[in-house]
Amino acid sequence: QVQLVESGGGLVQAGGSLRLSCAASGRTLSSYAMGWFRQAPGKEREFVAAIGNSGGSSRYADSVKGRFTISRDGAKNTAYLQMKSLEPEDTAVYYCTASPNIATIGFGSWGQGTQVTVSS
Fold first, then answer.
1. How far apart (Å, rounded) are the C-alpha atoms in residues 95 and 74?
2. pLDDT above 90 (res 26)
3. I need a surface site. Which of 22, 92, 99, 120 has the fewest CB within 10 A?
4. What's the chain's average pLDDT?
5. How many CB atoms lie within 10 A of CB 52?
6. How much is the CA Rg of the chain, to the nearest whole Å?
7. Using an 8 Å Cβ cutoff, are 107 and 1 in contact?
8. Where do runs of H (alpha helix) occur along 33-80?
9. How far apart are CA 80 and CA 32, in angstroms?
10. Distances in whole angstroms, Cα of residue 7 to Cα of each of 35, 42, 109, 110, 114
């Protein structure tokens, strides 16, 4: 079982940027596809982005395409979510997740979440 710890959340003005990190321990990150989900108050948790085990493939929700970039660093056993042009609608708790492959993202291990708040 891999353990995941997110960091990098905070308060930012609309149009600003943040980079979230997801540090993995217990297993080598290369064994997993990685993903980010988010949950806003009163809403269901929703998919944001995912990256394959080797980093060669990635997927994004339509709402973040062109603004968010998911990446991974095997040497640091860490995945990232670079967020640019942030909007108040991006305000949510962001969760990192790991699954054996990108097709099953969201059905594996989860971190505790990190809060992102975008002010208008």
1. 19
2. no
3. 120
4. 95
5. 17
6. 13
7. no
8. none
9. 14
10. 14, 23, 16, 13, 6
Give pLDDT, residue 29.
Answer: 81
CA distance 37 to 56: 20
Q: Which residue has the tokens 């990108």?
A: 102
> How far is Cα 3 from Cα 38, in angstroms, rounded to an integer?
18
The encoded tokens of residue 95 equal 């969760």
The pLDDT value recorded for residue 119 is 97
Q: Please list, residue by residue across 61-74, b when 16 or more beta carbons sit within 10 angstroms of its beta carbon and e when fewer do.
A: eeebeeebbbebee
Exposure of 99 in the CB half-sphere (CA atoms within 13 A): 15
Three-state SS string over 1-15 comes to: CCEEEEECCEEEECC
- Reply yes or no on whether the pLDDT at 30 is more than 90: no
What is the rounded CA–CA span in Å between residue 105 and residue 108?
A: 7
From CA 27, how far away is CA 51, in angstroms rounded? 17
